[in-house]
Amino acid sequence: MAERFAIYPPVVQLPRDPSNVAHALTAAFPTRLASDVRSVLAVMPEVRLVPMMPFEVRVQGETVAIPSRIYNEEPGADLQRPLTATQQVILHCLYSRHSDGRVRQRHLEQIVASGEPWVVPFVVQLASEYVLEIIEAIGRGLPGLAVPGSDQRRVYGEFIARNQAFFARTERRVVSYWSCYYRWKYGAFGAYPGGVLLEAFRAAVVEQVGAQWPRHTPRSAGGRG
After folding, report:
1. How confident is the model at residue 23, as a pLDDT?
2. Strand, coil or helix: 73
3. Across-strand partners of 218?
4. What angle do CA 92, 19, 99 make, to 5 degrees?
5. What are the residues whose beta carbons fall under 8 Å from the beta carbon of 132, sequence distance 6 or more?
6. Residue 43: is its pLDDT beyond 70?
7. Among the four residues 89, 100, 170, 218, which has the most C-beta atoms within 10 Å?
8. CA 10, 59, 141, 176: dihedral to nearest 10 degrees?
């Protein structure tokens, strides 16, 4: 899977205090998971670059700040083995934000089917990225989005309903990457895997709120609605 479309942010050197990284990564999860996050951080190799550009969303009544990118090397299997099931999900969530697209996809595939509400923003954010294989992996991992009343539909619908501005930015990013890199292959936005995924997300939130939801994507190949 090529990274030829990557636009990397400026590299920032980490101050000497490593707790800056720990604080940034702990803030990506609800406070009740803080001790589990610390256990995960203990097995992650140290890094000299700070996590980049966090985005804030609301998860179960709390605001979390999830980094757009992290730069830690992956821990070996022997270090991961003692982690609990919850801690392993946390680790996969963090590495789904890795600067290497192959690493992001590998860890996404371990969490995409999770029903935990705090996993949802990690998945939705990846839907707005440029790597087509990642978007296709999300679609494969969320078959329940197409099933009215399913648990997957409910958890994604609830998240989007509480994060309208975040979802609007997600839509605009998906449209931008389609227009820039994939329009030649998918002439209609509705045929693009990212467009299909956004429609499934929109159906999930409409089911939750019982009303139409604002649209920031093309209704057809020729215009926006």
Report:
1. 86
2. coil
3. 224
4. 40
5. 182, 193
6. yes
7. 170
8. -40
Instruction: Please name the residues in contact with 87: beta carbons below 8 A apart, sequence gap of 6 or more.
Output: 36, 39, 40
The yes-or-no verdict on residue 222 having pLDDT over 70 is: no
Cβ atoms within 10 Å of 171's Cβ, excluding its own:
22
Q: What percent of the chain has pLDDT over 70?
A: 89
For the whole prediction, is pTM greater than 0.85? yes
Pair of tokens at residue 81: 């083995």
CB count, 10 Å around CB of 208?
19
Tokens of 114: 């999770």
Q: How far is residue 211's CA from residue 32's CA, in Å, rounded to a whole number? A: 33
The tokens of 181 are what?
């890199």
Q: Which tokens sit at 208?
A: 């939750």
Tokens 């636009």 correspond to what residue? Answer: 7
What are the two backbone dihedrals, phi and then psi, of residue 136, each rounded to the nearest 5 degrees? -65, -35
